[in-house]
Amino acid sequence: MFIGMTTAIHPGEMTKTVYVSLAKVKHGPCLSFFVESSTSPEHVNATLKALRREAFIRLGELGLSAAEADRFLNPLAPYLKESNLAVADGQTLGIFLSASDCSSFSVPLAIRTRLVASQRFYLKPVLPCLLEPQQYHVLAISENSAHLFQCSGHECHKVQVAGLPKSLKDVFASRDFASSLQAHSSGVPGHQPLTYHGHSGPVEEVHKNRVAYCRHISAAIEKHLQDCEEALILACVSEYLPAFREVSRFKGLVHDAIAGNPDRLTIADIQHASRKMIDALTKERMLRDIKEYVDVRNTPRSSSSLAEILAAVFDGRVKSVFVRAGIDVWGVFDPGTNALSLNGDAASAGSEEMLNLAAIESVLHGGIACLVPAADMPENEPIVAVFRY
User: Are 236 and 257 in contact (CB under 8 A)?
Assistant: First the structure.
């Protein structure tokens, strides 16, 4: 059984574990439905009904009778009846249906609405989910508060952390020199953070006090997260960046931060801003992987030949494969003989999308698979790869 929810109300997240479980299904028919963002449940419902009608026709072309096609599509019924299903902006609903199961996932990517019927699930559009961290944290620091948020593809919620100071004032409340500190307010009405300094060297003292505050925060965070190496993004005013970095030993601390006073941000704001940073980090990682291809280009450790790459992925020789976004290459590949027959960008009975196949087999054999915008592809080819040997 696949990992995921079989109800339209609570789709699961597309993780690498989910991808692998779907990728292991190798005998169709496999139907992959994608519904792009729409806040209108009525529009989502109408789109799914249209895709269901298209799926009925495709199953007939694959040799199923009308009765068999109806039975095959029956697991879609709960989705078609759901009146409250909406797909948030920047998200895509993915439904994957085979003879044995039906699973749905909320994918934090903009994927165009379509249905793909094949011998395997069409997982190429969700490849970016494999590079992105499945979970990361945002640490919001202001003089009035400190909060830790746990985020994933489409969720963000506050986490309770033992020992996390409530505010800068809370840290210094028990200090012997607390009475020697002076407080003054700054900021806009209704948002007046307290800045503490001593009688001598105000600027230096302010920084020292922030460092002491951040030391307490860092100790609590590191104890809570322990040896976790997930990304940790700061949300704070610029003055707190050097203070926290001075005391933090957290391995996953991201260099950039969400700028500004986090007291003025909603959880949705934090989620949106952190997602942009995670997306940027993901692209940086992809470009580093592509550079490895450039470094070994024109050597036996690289190839831009689809036939050669397909043979290599089934042998487990591919370290990383890069497929161009926006195009499909349909055909039939026989891993026994390494024979490849192509029929262009149109699907036909018994054919598979070859770039999808290459990505799936690469991941199943422990390799990396990336979906790359055309502008970032190192060659004017639909696919390139780096071989392990």
Answer: yes
Give CATH for domain 1-126.
3.30.960.10
Ranges of CATH 3.30.1330.30 domains, the chain: 297-389
Stated pTM of the model? 0.81
Reduced to 3 states (helix: H, G, I; strand: E, B; else coil), residue 59 is helix
Q: Tell me 380's DSSP state.
A: S
Q: Cα–chain-centroid distance for residue 127?
A: 9
Q: How many CA atoms lie within 13 A of 385 on its CB side?
A: 30
Q: In the numeric block, which tokens belong to residue 384?
A: 């390139």
Q: Does domain 297-389 have CATH number 3.40.50.720?
A: no
> Whose structure tokens read 């059984």?
1
Quote the tokens at residue 380. 């004017």
What are the residue ranges of CATH 3.30.420.60 in the chain?
A: 136-284
Is residue 321 within 8 Å of 367, Cβ to Cβ?
yes
Q: What is the pLDDT of residues 153-167, one digit of tens each?
A: 668 999 999 999 999
CA atoms of 43 and 83, how far apart (whole Å): 10
Backbone angles phi, psi at 366, to 5 degrees: 85, 15
Say how many C-beta atoms besides its own lie within 10 A of residue 50's C-beta: 12
Q: Could you give the CA distance from residue 159 to residue 150 in angstroms, rounded to a whole number?
A: 6
Task: Judge contact between 335 and 348, C-beta under 8 A.
Answer: no
Quick one: average pLDDT of 303-328?
Answer: 97
